[in-house]
Amino acid sequence: MTRRWFGSVRSRATLAATLVVAVALLAAGAAVLLSLRSDLTGQAESEAASAARAVAVELSDGRPYDKLTGLDEDDRPVQILDERGRVVAASEDLERVTGTGADTARPGDPGGRAGGDADDDADDSDDANGSDGPDDDPAPRGEVDSDTDFSTGTATIDGTTADYRFAAVEVEFEDRGKFTVYAGAPLAAERSAVGTATTAMLIGFPLLLSVVAGATWLVTRRALSPVEGIRREMAAITASEDLARRVPVPATHDEVARLALTTNETLAALESSVERQRRFVADASHELRSPIASLRTQLEVGAAHPELLDLDGAVTDTVRLQTLAADLLLLARLDAGERPGDARFDLGALAREHAEGRAGVTVTADEVPVAGSRAQVGRVLTNLLDNARRHARSAVTVGVRAEGEWAVVAVADDGDGVPEADRERIFERFVRLDEARSRDDGGAGLGLAIARDVAVRHGGTLTVGRAPAGGALFELRLPRAR
Q1: DSSP for 27-66?
Q2: Residues with Cβ within 8 Å of residue 136, at least 6 apart in sequence
């Protein structure tokens, strides 16, 4: 069952369309998710950078840590680290943090480097945030770096842990060195949006693929239904052997319609071929019956009355029968597609050879080489000469010449000629323009049919026209040998 399903054009088309759409959806989904994540991450980076730079500007102005406005926000983690990585200030509710490079979340947390030296912390605080000395000197100012670095980490604020995108901005003081301000923006919106989009894709993609598969199945079913009709009709024609039937032609004017038209043309050609074969068998049987019946009659008479046996008539009928059998055998070989061969020979010499000894035949032949079957071309010349001699009053002329790429043999007689309406019909099998005389002379109407078939299979032509003397002019054209 599985093999049969996959052997269907409809199923393969459905599977292919579904796979293509699935790949396209996966690629589009991945692109959408990446773009969404990039946009939301960029938005978080922008918020974090703005917050970090605002704190850095306040810090550079010499504002004390407890006066920095960025440290008062409840939902945004902020840390300030000195150049040795110690936390010198942080958001009030910040409990834990990762991604900033600090070991602790707040100044003075146990285990951190920031709580190791109270005097250093006091010095850093005084130097970085101004002095309350008697001279009331202005606090030292720092320079905010124009570059911003980003990192991803987590932060725990009031017991709630979430993912953040941290922006790092450096502030450099001449007397105390560099400080780094870290400010984070939550990635909850990015995680939520990506998760929602992923869930929607996981639900929507299978539904969409189901719709695509169903639509493809229905469309291909409708498109291939005429093909199924053609197949059923062909099966019925094969079973009934009725070649007169034709397959239905859909009115779509597409490839299926052209297939139906071509199929009907093939059926018509096959019907014509079968009919031609049947007619050939019937005509051959009819032609064979006459000499066989005559020969049997003579033999029966000879058996009963030996003194009345007509040996000459029996020999004549036997020769007629032998000639007809040879013609039928040659036609059968030609119909079977027998190749003519590629032997080279001189067409002029062959024409002189077959015209030799025939009364009233004049030959003018040039040396023209051709390639093919010498015996078959010789049979064509014999048939043309026999036909010309049968219809000529007194003379037959044969000419062989080269004409461009062709070797031409012209056989003309001075008889009555062939009516223009019959000039193609005489090349059909078993056709006689004078039934009685042709049968008496032993002709079966196969000579010219054989001659044309041989000419065509040698790549040439055989036509009939009017001779200068008023009779028939047969021209055989064969390709010259290269």
Answers
A1: HHHHHHHHHHHHHHHHHHHHHHHHHHHHHHHHHHTT--GG
A2: none
Arithmetic mean of pLDDT over the chain: 84
Q: CB of 230 within 8 A of CB of 243?
A: no
Residue 130, domain member (yes or no): yes
Which stretch of DSSP H or E encloses residue 152?
strand 149-157
Do 176 and 39 share a domain, yes or no? yes
The range of the structural domain enclosing residue 118 comes to 33-192
470's enclosing H/E stretch is: none
With b meaning 16 or more CB within 10 Å and e meaning fewer, what string describes 209-237? beebbeebbeebeebbebbebbeebeeeb
Distance CA 35, CA 297 (A): 103
User: How many structural domains are present in the chain?
Assistant: 3
- Structure confidence by residue, pLDDT tens digits, 23-36: 999 999 999 999 99
pTM listed for this prediction: 0.51
Domain assignment present for 221: no
d(CA 331, CA 449): 9
What's the pLDDT at 281? 78
List, edge to edge, every strand of the sheet that includes 461-466: 361-365, 396-403, 406-413, 472-479, 461-466
Q: Which residue has the tokens 């991945």?
A: 30
The pLDDT tens digits of the residues spanning 397-432 come to 999 999 999 999 999 999 998 998 888 989 988 777
Banded model confidence at residue 134, pLDDT cuts 50, 70, 90? very low
Cα dihedral across residues 81, 87, 92, 97: positive or negative: positive
Instruction: State which amino acid sits at residue 67.
Output: K
Of the candidates 161, 192, 223, which is a domain's last residue?
192
pLDDT digits (tens, 9 = 90+) for 455-475: 999 999 999 999 988 899 999
Task: Give the span between the Cα atoms of 109 and 102, in whole angstroms.
Answer: 11
Q: Using an 8 Å Cβ cutoff, are 341 and 314 in contact?
A: no
Residues 349 and 296 in one domain: no
Q: Pairing relation of β-strands 396-403 and 361-365?
A: parallel
pLDDT at res. 116? 37
Specify if 314 maps to a domain: yes
Of 192, 218, 246, which residue is a domain's last?
192
CA distances from 399 to 249, 352, 378, 450 (A): 53, 10, 15, 21
